[in-house]
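#struct-pred
JK: can someone run the complex with adenosine-5'-diphosphate? inputs below
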Amino acid sequence: RAGRELEVAVVAPDLRHMMIVTHDVTERRRVDDMRRDFVANVSHELRTPLTVISGFLNMEVDAGKLPPEMLEHHRQLMLEQATRMRSLLDDLLLLSSLENKDESDDADAEVIAMPKLIEDVVREGKALSLGRHHITLEAEDISLIGDADEIRSAAMNLVSNAVRYTPEGGSIAVAWKRAGMGAALSVKDTGIGIEAKHIPRLTERFYRVDKGRSRDTGGTGLGLAIVKHVLRRNGGELLIESTPGKGSTFTMMFPESRIFSEDF
Ligand code: ADP
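RT: done, structure tokens with the ligand placed:
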């Protein structure tokens, strides 16, 4: 069959009989390829900052005494690279712990006061934006049933992406509202937007539209993969709408079964 990969073995139990055994190994190959790509990506992402750090350290050892301003500048750059490695490792650990938890083993189910959680996330978003964006928040008094740490980290990823992919002077609107019988947390920005062809792949690990921009703004390429896993474990879904040059809206949708109602 087209596009499928078969492993063929010829088995001859005796001289007069012969069997041809085939196995469809398409899926196994796909998983192997993904694993190989992942290891290559992680290695590359860690190697770059390490190369920068060891480069500066070597320069200092070789050059002997350098002017203090230069040393200070090197230290600053090394610190940036160390921070980048740290964020990558933090995201990798979070992603692997989300993946390791059996998918059938639901996330912690606590009642989350969402307005408070979103307020905290928006406060952190403002700290990242440093006044460069107009950030607004609108939250209805709806509680969600789920794992608060996981939901907070997914929401934070969406807000930090909005900050990182929106040029100075742009707006970011965060809203938590009823949507149908359930509720939705949306993060809408007036940023650079995303071409339609990239949208289906954004939640893949290390998939980025523009690697340079992602790295320069402190991205690890794992944020939306984390969001996808969190939503899968907490009964939600991610909706992405975007227009290049105009902006994007990322929405986490939760069904009615995940909304806490006092009437029960
Ligand atoms: P990264 O650390 O690279 O931001 P993510 O997994 O969070 O990784 O996002 C994957 C890619 O999706 C980003 O590299 C970027 O190209 C695109 N993206 C995510 N959020 C936005 C946004 N709000 N506006 C434009 N592009 C975005």
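RT: quick notes.
The first helix runs from residue 26 to 63.
The chain has six helices and ten strands.
JK: thanks, will look after standup
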